[in-house]
Amino acid sequence: MRRILLSIIVALHITACGRNTGNADTTFSMDSFERITVPDAAGTKYHNDSIFLGNPHIIRFHPDGYLVLADVPNADQITVIDLQSDKVQSLVKHGRGPAEIMSVRDLAIRDGDIWVTGIADQKIIRLTRGEGKREFEPASYYRAKDQFLRAVPFTKGRILALASSSSGNRFHILDSEATTRDTVGSFPSTGRIAEVEPNNAIFQSDITVAPNGEHTAAVRQSLEYIDIYDAEMGLTSRLHGPQGVEPAIKAVSTGLGTAFHQDPLWLIFNNPVSDNDRLMIGYIGIRVESEEDFARQTNTVLSFGWDGRPLKAYEFESDIVSFDMDWKNNRMYCLANRPEPEILVYDLGDLE
Q: pTM of the predicted model, to two decimals?
């Protein structure tokens, strides 16, 4: 699935257009950051005998003292760990029932709730807690009227979705019933192949929204571009780097139309997370030359200010699968396969 999605992403020189407010293109390199080495030994392994990890692929930190994991092969796809008591909850079964989901695509925390989305069934599930309780339970679930590729909570009562490739739109804003209420954002202009109609099959991205809703970032999975938007989804800056990768494009006719393949294919960004002041992005930076390269994961976490300023680059000795921040305590929680799945905690203050 990952290879199919990435193979149709087009790498092109990007200029902003449409509903933009800043339109400021900025180039950065690894030398733009304060570079910090993260040795394996600096991580503290989290132990909990009640957890069985299959193949977890997302970790999120809940500021009320939880870790939330998305785990692929388990019957219950969401694991919630209460860091105060070490109690473990298993939620959101694999399936087609009302509070079930076929496969978790996005996992996000907003206003104390856990949001789970899947693109196979276009479903959005919100998990919440009763008054005075620590346990989560399904509170609402929706099936989006319009297809999406990503979906995360936006501002109160709204969801931001990366629109489907067939819609012709960049982003949709959904209401609390998952009905599209607005289309926002604009596609980069495709100057190198003018006849290509841009869509989200070409410009696949991961999304993060600041807790206060004032900023949003979209990071491309195989292109060296990071787009930063304001509260109204106007483009404020477009960041390009760190290696200056500009792959060529090949158009291939298929029985269903034309597919656009990136040549060579790169794995670039993933796993953006943010608070109201900073943006952190997983960086892979690998040119795919063999089947084994598709298994590569994040080796560096890049930190930016919301104004686009490069801040710090945390360079890991070994790859990590996913990460999130306890922003208050400057602590990073990571998923790693070394060789079994494990949760590692890094105190960034000790490293800096």
A: 0.89
